[in-house]
Each structure stands twice: as structure tokens, then as C-alpha cells.
Amino acid sequence: MTLTLAAAEKILADNFAPWVLDLGLAVVAVEGRQAVLRLPWSDRLAREGGGLSGQALMAAADTATVIAVATARGGFVPMTTVQQSISFQRAVVGADVLVRARLTKAGKRMAFADITMTAEGTEETAAHATAVYALLG
Questions:
Q1: Burial class (CB in 10 A: 0-12, 13-18, 19+), 130
Q2: Within a 10 A sphere around the Cβ of 99, how many other Cβ atoms?
């Protein structure tokens, strides 16, 4: 079963805390075992110095992984983050961020993801994350 963009957007709207929704994330693409979300630039998400905050990037990576799991499963299933690690490589200032989550393994009970974040208009990695999820349903 293929997950549509509209279905992915509904999963986003229906399954995340209000403060995560306040980030303004939008699903850009879903295919196979991947999802791409856009984190729009906002001064509210900037840290001292003007760069996008690490907290916003971590939340975006986590959210994109949930959508990637749903894409691979053909719909939302209950899940929880077991582990997430991130490396910040360059600041993002004044640009939207494309968050690409790709499942490297999707089993019955666990999913492993590789997440790359780039400022829109560049291929240079701003942050790279990995995540492990327990699939509960």
C-alpha cells in the first residue's frame, strides 16, 4: 500500500504534540522507505547567534522518521523513539530545511533510520541524525 502525501500530512496532523505542529513541518515527499519534510525558517526557532536551534532540528528529524516508518508500513502504527543521535555540521540561517529520513532497516518490531538535513537550495549537510524506533503495533 502506497502512502499518499495527503495521508502523510494527516498522520502528521493527528499524531504529534501541539508544540511539534507549531514547527510548521510539511511533508514534501514519501516513497518506499523514505520521507522528506520541510522545516520552514522562523525567527522563533533561531538560537542566540541567529542559527536554527538544535532542538528544532532534533524534533524535525524525529518527526520525519515517524513519517518514513508510516510510509514503509502503508499507514501509521504506534511506535516510540528508542535512540536518536545527531551531529550538527553547519548553521542554517534564514533558510528552510529539508529533512530526509530513510529507513535502513524496517523489521516487525524495530526500525532504523538515517536522517540528513540540508538548507534548501544546497546539498551541504547541515545536520545528520540516526534513530532507532520500537514498533508497538
A1: middle
A2: 29
Contacts of 83 (CB under 8 A, 6+ apart): 130, 131, 132
Residue ranges of alpha helices (H) inside the chain are: 5-15, 18-21, 54-73
128 in Cβ contact with 116 (< 8 Å): yes
Q: Which residue has the cell 550538527?
A: 88
Helix boundaries (H) for 16-137: 18-21, 54-73
Q: Given a cut of 80, is residue 1 above it in pLDDT?
A: no
80 CB-near residues (< 8 Å, 6+ apart): 133, 134, 136
Residues 69/15, Cβ–Cβ less than 8 Å: no
Alpha helices in 16-113 (DSSP H): 18-21, 54-73
Report pTM. Answer: 0.95
pLDDT tens digits along 85-128 = 999 999 999 999 999 999 999 999 999 999 999 999 999 999 99
DSSP structural state of residue 35: E
